[in-house]
Amino acid sequence: xxxxxxxxxxxxxxxxxxxxxxxxxxxxxxxxxxxxxxxxxxxxxxxxxxxxxxxxxxxxxxxxxxxxxxxxxxxxxxxxxxxxxxxxxxxxxxxxxxxxxxxxxxxxxxxxxxxxxxxxxxxxxxxxxxxxxxxxxxxxxxxxxxxxxxxxxxxxxx
Length: 158
Description:
By secondary structure, the chain is α+β, with helices and mostly antiparallel strands. It has one domain: Aminopeptidase, CATH 3.40.630. The protein contains 4 helices and 7 strands. The protein has helices at residues 11-22, 27-48, 93-107, 124-132; strands at 2-4, 51-57, 60-69, 76-84, 112-118, 136-146, 149-157. α1 packs across α2 (27-48). It is globular, with a radius of gyration of 15 Å. The relative contact order is 0.14.
């Protein structure tokens, strides 16, 4: 596995394929991830505020993370996306990717990583993933995404 921070135009299609392969995301959520990638490509990481790490296997993107500094905070970052292609799950790629995100945020003088996800049963493995990495649930906002679909907020301190 190779990791890189510089997005390529072809990554936009790969990000879409990765997210669609998981079966977790609505079309409009995939569209937002594509918008963030296009913003990064058009304006760069610093101006867009969106930082990407791409994981490649033999030159093919298989996973990615997208994060950025939380506006109006001293040392907080938001993890917007972390996703592994369905055919690569269970290989520890997500764990390695999260470690790289944490290291990069620490290099950028970040201290807090804020992560949001759904409470739907589909997201049980996602919530377990974050808990296994030492993230703490700090809030749950009832019916945030829809009826009986709460927003679960995690905090990871680096």
